[in-house]
Write a structure and sequence with these properties.
alpha+beta; four-stranded antiparallel beta sheet
Length: about 210
């Protein structure tokens, strides 16, 4: 394992690790060069999303129609109405549960709980990128159809007026989250460790 850098006209164009692939007395050593993708997200690579300090999102009062709360013009969290008669188990009747999570009447949210925030996928990806000092870009990030993607959550706010993001995320590492996202949406990942850029595209466009 050796550090490898390739320069063209004095400019660094590629950086990675050179690994010994083969050796013959006639041809000598053969090396293959790979990029250390396993270190792309640095200290956050193997941390669980629930253990990362992503910060908080303040909630307006009342919640806006539709339940989408933004941060710096980005869709951050939302409160979709979900039918779930088992949210409180067999205690629903005693707390006057209406079998609706984030109960919305068509004009406003009711005062009855529970209120359960869902985090937008792209918002979380940008949060990860900012913390790790990398850029996440590509057709997936530019696709307006994927703006509505959210992460399902079953943890209620319990009266809190701010959303602590890590408390409402799946218990998986950054890498596990990306792998599952890739499998679910048939995505392609292209890592550029030199420029600290991850380009997310669609696998079907590679073969079209």
């Amino acid at each position: 394992r050796f550090s490898f850098q390739q320069y063209i006209n004095g400019y660094l164009v590629f950086e990675g690790l050179a690994l010994l692939a083969d050796y013959t007395p006639k041809k000598g050593y053969s090396l293959t060069v790979v990029q250390p993708v396993g270190e792309f997200f640095g200290q956050y690579q193997t941390q669980k999303l629930t253990d990362i300090a992503f910060g908080t999102v303040s909630l307006p009062t009342p919640l806006p129609p539709g339940g989408v709360v933004q941060e710096n013009t980005q869709n951050a969290i939302c409160f979709p109405t979900i039918l779930n008669q088992d949210f409180y188990g067999d205690k629903g009747t005693s707390v006057s549960y209406t079998i609706r999570v984030n109960d919305y009447t068509g004009v406003a949210y009711t005062t009855a709980g529970p209120f359960v925030p869902m985090v937008f996928v792209k918002y979380l990806l940008r949060k990860i990128a900012t913390l790790a000092g990398v850029t996440i870009q590509g057709p997936f990030m530019d696709d307006t159809d994927t703006n509505a993607l959210i992460l399902y959550n079953i943890r209620a706010l319990d009266g809190a007026t701010t959303v602590t993001l890590s408390r409402h995320l799946p218990e998986m590492t950054v890498v596990e989250f990306l792998v599952e996202l890739r499998k679910y949406l048939n995505l392609s990942f292209k890592f550029d460790t030199l420029n600290k850029t991850l380009t997310i595209g669609y696998t079907d466009t590679i073969f079209s």
